[in-house]
Amino acid sequence: MGAATPLRLDRPLVLIGPMASGKSTIGHAFAAEHGLDFADSDKRIVDRHGPIPAIFTALGEHAFRELEAREVAGLVADGTPRVVSLGGGAILDTGTQQLLARCTVVFLDVDLDTVRPRIERETGRPLLAGDPVARWNELAMRRRPTYQRLADIVLDTRGKSAADVVRELTEHIFERQSR
Q1: Which of 21, 33, 86, 93 has a beta carbon 3.0–4.6 Å from 110's, enabling a disulfide?
Q2: What angle is formed at CA 146 by the lines to CA 141 and CA 147, rounded to 5 degrees?
């Protein structure tokens, strides 16, 4: 399947989903496997503006979302085929939603049991302050309809390794290309 036919993208492939759903890990692994460029919007923000918690503290969530929208636009607006991982809340911006209509959007669907170990051990996620499990669940449920509406492909990642998800995503992309 994949070895005989190289995978080509004709537009950005964008991974969306809740915090800690594996977007960066899956995106990086998928891009590496197929020789594609990879970009992580959160990493670009950190590289250019400093740690996300510091941005939230100094400027607030609204200012962070503006920075985030600009970074996402810089990664996808020109249509360059690459793999892009977005922060969990990036899809809240209507301009970003419009840009995603010109991308192949993959929603990494995940449940609380899968992410619980990741969010309980991690600090530095400003929106999970206090009770990270309850906050994650609230945000994931509130954003879920938007993730689903924007997605061209939905991958259920529950109980799957990164390699399994990359393999499944590869199959979906080859299937779309053969239509």
Answers
A1: 21
A2: 80
| 30-54 per-position pLDDT tens digit | 999 999 999 999 999 999 999 998 9
Tokens at residue 39, please?
A: 């970009």
> Which residue, 147, 119, 152, is CA-closest to 10?
152
Q: What is the pLDDT of residue 2?
A: 42
Cα separation, 169 vs 123, whole angstroms: 29
On whether 65 is known to bind a ligand per the annotation, the reply is yes
Q: Is 104 annotated as a binding residue?
A: no
**Residue 142 assigned ligand-binding role:** no
Q: Is 42 labelled a binding residue?
A: yes
Has 164 been labeled as part of a binding site? no
The whole-angstrom separation of Cα 45 and Cα 57 is 15
